[in-house]
Amino acid sequence: MRLAFSTLGVPGLPVTDVVRLAATHGYHGVELRAHPEEPVHPGLDVDERADVAAEFKAGGIDVLGIAGYARVAAPGDDGPVIEEVRRLVDLARDLGAPYVRVFPGGGHEQTHERADATAARRLGTAAEYGADLGVRILLETHDSHRTGADAIRVLGRVGHRNAGALWDVMHTWLGGEQPSESYAALAPFLGYVQVKDIASADDTTPLSLGAGVLPLAECVEVLSRHGWDGWLCWEYEKRWYEEAAPLDGLLAAGHDHLCRLLNDSA
Questions:
Q1: What is the pLDDT of residue 266?
Q2: What DSSP assignment string belongs to 144-177?
Q3: Rounded to whole angstroms, how far apart are CA atoms 17 and 119?
Q4: 230 burial class (0-12, 13-18, 19+ CB within 10 angstroms)?
Q5: Contact between residue 175 and residue 210 where contact means Cβ atoms under 8 Å apart
Q6: pLDDT in the model for residue 195
Q7: Which secondary structure element, helix H or strand E, spans residue 88, and what is its range?
Q8: Would you say the pTM of this structure is higher than 0.85?
Q9: Taking Cα atoms as reference points, which of 96, 23, 31 lies closest to residue 60?
Q10: Quick one: pLDDT at residue 225?
Q11: How many CB atoms lie within 10 A of CB 255?
Q12: Dihedrals φ, ψ of 133, to 5°?
């Protein structure tokens, strides 16, 4: 498996410094949070995108994915959501990223059936667009669809290879799934895995990997046992928790912890 981290853990950090952190601490790739407050977002022009791509290439670091905020199950018209996903796919193509992350984002006023149908319809349309550009759109286990069982209700309807799943291990755990259950559900669709650690279900302040309660060892063991060889991406949610320790001081220990888990599961 290959290791990456998300720029959610280093809010606003210039691309040059992101690349340097990844190379210094042994990470193979980076997931880029695509938001206007970040250096990389869909509003960049062609030259700016080329500069970002060149920075990563020069540093030998892959752009794993573009983490967008489109909510494919949200109530409302399809058009704006599909357009938002397309803009993310265009950015991913220009930066050489194979994946785009989207959220479910179903509303409380919807039935599960309506939210599932809405998400599947939009993902199907977006996946066709992504296929033409070589980009796969991943539905994260999150919010209204936080478990693997929730996600496959949508992805099973889509039936397109360019629509897949992003397994956020915190949300499936909070949803009551065991890692073996989450993997069994998501395996046919799995793009990559987001790892993290927290103190408890009631305190989701990000911690260094291995310092909390999430079943990271079990997740890695399940993946290894089934011969999965994709990406593990550390999503440290510093942007939402100002009191959390800076990620740059934790990256080396996080890398070593994941390598130990991988060695132990081999």
A1: 85
A2: TB-SHHHHHHHHHHH--TTEEEEEEHHHHHHTT-
A3: 36
A4: middle
A5: no
A6: 98
A7: helix 78-95
A8: yes
A9: 23
A10: 97
A11: 18
A12: -110, 0
